[in-house]
Amino acid sequence: NCMGEKSAKSVSIVTSKGEEIKTYDTINLYAAEVENFVKHYFLKDEAAFLGTSYDDAIYGLQIIDAIRKSNLDGKAHEII
C-alpha cells in the first residue's frame, strides 16, 4: 500500500511473539490533515495539531527504512 489520501485498513505486525493484525477505520488522510490545520490556525483549537514527537518521527523513519531495505533484499529487518 502506498501513502496517499486513503489510509490502510489493516496492518500486519510480525514479531518474535507472532503476528498481530491491527484494523483501523478508513479515513481520508489528506482531508484530516487540512481539517486539523484549519482547527489549529484559524479556530485556535489548542487540542488540534499536537504534532509528532521527535521520538515518534525517528521511529516512523526507521519503519520506512526497514520497509525500503526489505523491498530491496526480500528479507525482514529489525527495528531497534
Description:
- This protein is 41% helix and 15% strand.
- With 80 residues, it is α+β, with helices and mostly antiparallel strands.
- The longest helix has 20 residues, at 54-73.
- The chain contains 2 helices and 2 strands.
- The chain has a two-stranded antiparallel ribbon with strand order 1-2.
- The radius of gyration is 16 Å and the shape is elongated.
Distance between the termini: 23 Å
Q: Mean pLDDT across all residues, rounded?
A: 82
Record the strand order, biggest sheet.
Answer: 1-2
Strand content: 15-25%
Level of helix content?
40-55%
The helix-strand sequence is: EEHH
Mind telling me the C-alpha Rg?
16 Å
Query: Would you identify the regions where 5 or more consecutive residues have pLDDT less than 50?
Result: none
The counted number of beta strands is 2
Task: Determine the structural class based on helices, strands and strand pairing.
Answer: alpha+beta
How large is the count of helical segments? 2
Tell the overall outline. Answer: elongated
What's the story with the biggest beta sheet?
2 strands, antiparallel
Question: Which tags fit this structure?
Answer:
two-stranded antiparallel sheet; 80 residues
Topology overview:
Elements: E1 10-15, E2 18-23, H1 29-41, H2 54-73
Antiparallel strand pairs: 1-2
